[in-house]
User: Fold this.
Amino acid sequence: MTLGELIGLLEVEGARIVYSTQLVPEGKTVSLDSPTLDVLEEALKELGLTLRYQQGVIAIVRGPEYVPVAEAESVASALEDEPQLETVIVTGSRHRFFGPETTNPTRSYSSSEIGAQPLFASDPLRVTTRLPGVSTLGVSARPHIRGGLSDELLIIRNGIELLEPFHLADFHSAYSAIDISSLDSLDIYTGGFPARYGNRMSGVMDLQTRERSEQRNLDIGFSTFATRVALYGDVDFAEGGNFLLSWRGGDLDDVASFIEHESGVPEYSDLSASFHVDLTPDSSVAFGFTQAKDDILFVGDLVGQETALSKVVTDHLWAEYLVDGLGRWRTRLTGSAIDLSRRNEQFDNEEIEQDQEGGFLQHQQDVLRVAVRNDWIRDGLGTTYELGWQAEFNRGRYQHQSEIERGVIADLIGTPRNESRDINLKPEGWSGGGYVQMQVPVGERLVIQPGMRIDFQDYYIDRGFETQLSPRLGVAYTVSDEMTVRLDLGRFQQPEAVQELQVRDGLDRFFQPQIADQVAVALEWRGGSLLLRGEAYYKQYRRPKGRFENLFNPFVLLPQLEEDRVEIQPDQVYASGFDVSVERAFSRSITGDLSYSYMDAKDRIEGRSIPRRWSQRHTMNLGMRYELGDFSLAGALTWHSGWNSTALPSFIADGDVVPVSSILNNSELPEFLSLDVSARKVWDFPRVRIEVFADVSNLTDRKNIAGIDFDERRVEGGYALEPEREFVLGRVTSLGVTLSF
Assistant:
């Protein structure tokens, strides 16, 4: 039996074993009477490796007598014939509470793997935009996953949900508030996630924070978009601990170049402080504070006429208490308080005086969320049990005034031309829920994961108390040592959070919680240097919420004031598709991946099936990475079908109206193509570590089209409509250096 087969048998029996395939030679032959952890430990000892038991997860790590693979003849012979595809099954983070998933397909990235990818403006959350099933035009760091809205993504860090962790949040969330240097790992679900995750329907990003910068105590970084300082240290208390203090700030003018503006001051900053202490060998406590701040001013092409201002401050205080060793149980208790303050102003001054098109919007939003969550897990060799609950107090305040004159286009498409709003709302109340799930091995090859969660809200202004039940089921069947088949099905529900009331578009009520019933079938085959994945999915939404879009070009300076701003209220939504991907290690230094996705996402409106704007039918991603020692070079090529857009007829007669539902997304934009590259180099000296990097997005500066705007011109008998192409981001370069002392 090989070492990899032994580990596989132990995992079937319920052991959660974490290792890197470049550290552990899975092809090494071992002799045994029965598959036990003692036998595994003896086999690993010959390689200088050992087992470390950590919060219910068994990690294979280097022992004190570890010899590098290149110097160990017995290991080298197992690996030299064919390059192995490195897979860090679960990155080792002290705060990781849940172990690796068996029945739910997950993409996991360590901090080094994220850094090796070409990233737009060196933004770590952009690593998700090249995943199969994701729709993007390269503008937003918050992607559309498998046809869903961008707000259907749950983002949590160290077990705590984050509210809008993005800079430029009022401008398509173009840049995340997560510093790549602070990340330890990122796990991503693009569907079929387990019952512990709730209130979102399409995807989950689960982030873990890095506790130290290796053995360095101070990082100082300078880049095109940020200046960063981080201080790390140890705490001599109880069983020991550590702390992290960091600050990042900069200017995002180049990132926001997709918005048509003459000048801008898009300044931002992040502040973070965290402390971790091991109280006993089986318990620890952590607490911290983060702040994200935007101070953004854009002035439009017509100087003095168009102005957009956005000031957003998010303060987040959190604490975590972990206990292991309660028999076979362990528990995590977290508490957090998030305060979000937003001020958004839009002005189009001159046009409103001409009574043609323009207006103003003044919007103030304040949100407080105080949350407590408790998770329990019992695992080992056999069935794993999970259960948990959470409760949140929510308080919001909205103050909004606007006067809008939309112009001729509004008349032609049958939407209100003049709107005047004065809205003051104070939603307040509780939300929360609970879940229970099991992971049960049935025989040697089958694992099932039934789960159920219940959620509630009582802050709705006009409906009172709401509850939702969401059953879920995951199944994994190991066909052979190389092949696994998975089935995930369930109900996913999403209420509008207290900060998501669409007041800027004139709404003063929450929509009912949305429902998405989903099924996904996946196949995974792994053999040495090759990994193949295939997955097909189907999603059916009921009670989809209404939303507001700009028909022609979504990337404008004053979206709520534009003449093409319309409300879209689907009766139902359907999304289906499939993803196929292959990953290959060509050598120890060169790896690559290729994926293809097909997607069809449609709204059902007034009896018609209408494709969603971001339903990019065909998508291909190609990536190559070269790593040798402290140097890495990577490239990524993304191609996909053009997004859908709305085209008006060339002439509309006086008195005629073209209903929105008859023209919505009736045309397809040209294909999208982007070549992105990155390079990194590290020098380690006794007193300082120096890292330099370069990320270039859209290297060829291709003019990818965002939408087609229309200018109306008065002619005899009506209006002539003239199309004008609008483009998204051109080439964006991020250069930087980090000094670690």
Remarks:
- The CA atoms of residues 123 and 473 lie 34 Å apart.
- The chain has two domains: 3-79, 107-740.
